[in-house]
Amino acid sequence: MEQASSPIPDRPVGAGSALLVLAIAFLIPGAGHIVLGHRAKGAGFLLIIIAMFAGGIAMEGRLYELDTSRPLTFGATLASHGSGLLDLTARFAGWSGDGMAPTYEYGTAFILTAGMMNLLLLFDVWSEMRDWSAEESGPSEGITE
Amino acid sequence: MSFGSHLLAMSLYAIGTGAFFALLWKDDTKGQARVFATIVVSLLAGGTAVAVLMEWIFNR
């Protein structure tokens, strides 16, 4: 694993590509960091989120679906969808979990946490691209100390 | 692999969460190790403390 994941000198992503990077980061956990040059960090995130999501599936966790009569499902559905392609693949495969399994609650917690982790990574990627944008705009528009 | 053990599931969760935030928050190996250990120990100790408390409240 690399010691530090400092940005590479040549910025690989222009401002116009920000949305594309965010879309890639959403679909594939850790891919946003890899695109931005943090390869080891991105690979680590990918492994961790896949492991968390797969653990949730192995524990018979549930993939939430929106139920307008139950407001608490809103956040859970957002977190569940947050895993990007992992979530889409499991849904496409017809995964529903087993509410009677003894590990169901743990499994659901793993799946929701994996989704929230990926959403958090989106903010991290967005934050880094915003910092680059501020630097390119010059000190007057950037964060001043 | 059986996930029937609460302690095993809790430990795996703590390890995954600790590794994620260590990687997210710190860039140096020493800092990552410190954050990882703090999160893992906190989650395990906190979860165990809550379990003992619930046992004490509901089963005494």
- Overall pLDDT score of chain A: 84
Shape of chain A: elongated
Largest interface, chains and sizes: A-B, 26 and 17 residues
Kindly report how far apart the N and C termini of chain B lie: 34 Å
Protein topology:
The complex is a heterodimer of chains A (145) and B (60).
Chain A lengths: L17 H10 L3 H5 L3 H20 L13 H10 L3 H8 L11 H34 L8
Helix pairs in contact in A: 1-6, 3-6, 4-6
Chain B lengths: L5 H20 L3 H30 L2
Helix pairs in contact in B: 1-2
Protein architecture, described:
The complex is a heterodimer of chains A (145) and B (60). By secondary structure, chain A is mostly helical. Chain A is built from six helices and no strands. In chain A, helix 1 runs antiparallel to helix 6, helix 3 (39-58) runs antiparallel to helix 6 (104-137) and helix 4 packs across helix 6 (104-137). The two termini of chain A are 32 Å apart. Chain B has two helices and no strands. Chain B has helices at 6-25, 29-58. In chain B, helix 1 runs antiparallel to helix 2 (29-58). Chain B is elongated. Chain A binds chain B through residues 1, 3-6, 41, 44-45, 48-49, 51-52, 55, 58-59, 102-103, 106-107, 109-110, 113, 117, 120-121, 124, and chain B through 1, 3-4, 6, 9-10, 12-13, 16-17, 19-20, 23-24, 27-29.
Give short descriptive properties of this protein.
heterodimer, A: 145 residues, mainly alpha, 60% helix, elongated, disordered N terminus, B: 60 residues, 83% helix
Q: How do you describe this structure in short?
A:
Chain A is mainly alpha-helical. Chain A is 60% helix and 0% strand. The model of chain A is unreliable at 1-6 and 141-145 (pLDDT under 50).
